[in-house]
Amino acid sequence: MRKARILVLFSLMFCTFLCLNPEFQQLVEFPEQNLTLNLQTEPQFRGFWSKIVKEEKEVVSNPTISVSSGGLDSKISEKIEVVYKLFGIFPIRSGEIEVMPPMKLIPGGQSIGVSLQTKGVLVVGQAAIEDKNGQKVYPAKEAGIEVGDTLLKINNQEVRTDQDVSDAVNLAGQQNGVAHVLFKHQGQILEKLIKPVFCVETGRYRVGLFVRDEAAGVGTLSFIDPATNQYGALGHVITDADTNQKIEVYNGKIMASTIYSIQKGKRGHPGEKIGSFVTNSPFSGTIEKNTLTGIFGKLRGQIVNPFYKEPIPVGWESEVKVGPAKIYTVIQGEKVEEFSINIDRVMHNRTDSKNMIVRVTDPRLLEATGGIIQGMSGSPIIQNGKIVGAVTHVFVNDAQRGYGVFIQNMINEGINNKVAA
């Protein structure tokens, strides 16, 4: 009986020791899948624990290699199943990890002007037409075209601008009174017949739509890959201001912008950077992708971050920790400045642009902007000497806090087509 009590007591003490041990707690929190580690990541356990808990690894997928070489286009990774066993016998925890090579990027922080032309012409509203009888009609709406749809062709002719749409509709009305409209609706390509109505007010045939073919705004550059001159910016997708739909990019560019005014953020009213494009911009870039985690393309010209003139390591998802960090952004003119923040929460298993909650702690930034404001999206987040993410959204009811995206997710979105090797 006494031996049994001693055994129970010893077991309780050992369990208590395990619960309080930070390395064992880290093992318990080990995710079951999608943990991403650097190839140079240190072992999970060292010293005493390395003798008790054994780590077994097995490759579960072939390496993935991009078709290009260098920088973002040369990512090589492999998935590994990791099993931790007590004394090398009893399984404690397992999980799938993606092992990544070391990678270095140059942090951004520069204010950029973004200008893009849509692929097709976006429907942003319905407009009543007063016909010759004085009645208000909506030909396009009645045919089934909705706000958020994208017009692609009218009478087999591509439309790329709002003027293209206006001219094609007017011509269709004059010639045969019917417009064959090819359009995209919720990812599907559809075709409808619409009868244009002669508008007494404008003297032209119309179908009753408000349309838009371009968008522009101010944001922040997140990073540049020195090997390929690829860049990432904004940290979130560009959507139309009226429809909140993702804009399909036909053509676009970024260039330097200067900030001349700040609207401070406050509860219920997000602040905003007020800026303009720089006429003789020292750099420019194409917009090749508009994705959930930002815009991407090729950069030309001179980019200078006064704090990081050389590339710094990428911090993968598993390396992002709750605690202090820095962001880099412009609040006046074109000068990139450093500000303190805190990463309050890290949310794994999210593949969108809301992977961490960040809070501005820098008194000077709080005084100048109230916290996170529009136009700050894309500001790089640096923690422990590594670029780990970018600012994306502000909390509407708390301007001091907002979301950040993992730099890992931006890199995955920005990489070109890959092939298995």
From TrEMBL:
Recite the UniProt keywords alphabetically.
Hydrolase, Signal
Select a single GO molecular function from the record's annotations and give it: hydrolase activity
Pfam families named among the record's database cross-references: PDZ_6 (PF17820), Peptidase_S55 (PF05580)
Q: What is its EC class? A: hydrolase
Which Gene3D superfamilies would you find in this protein's record? 2.30.42.10
Signal sequence span is 1-20
- InterPro entries in the record, alphabetically? PDZ_6, PDZ_sf, Peptidase_S1_PA, Peptidase_S55, SpoIVB
Q: What is its EC number?
A: 3.4.21.116
Q: Which domain of life is it from?
A: Bacteria
Q: Where is the Peptidase S55 domain?
A: 188-421
The name of this protein is SpoIVB peptidase
Name its species.
Answer: Desulfosporosinus acididurans
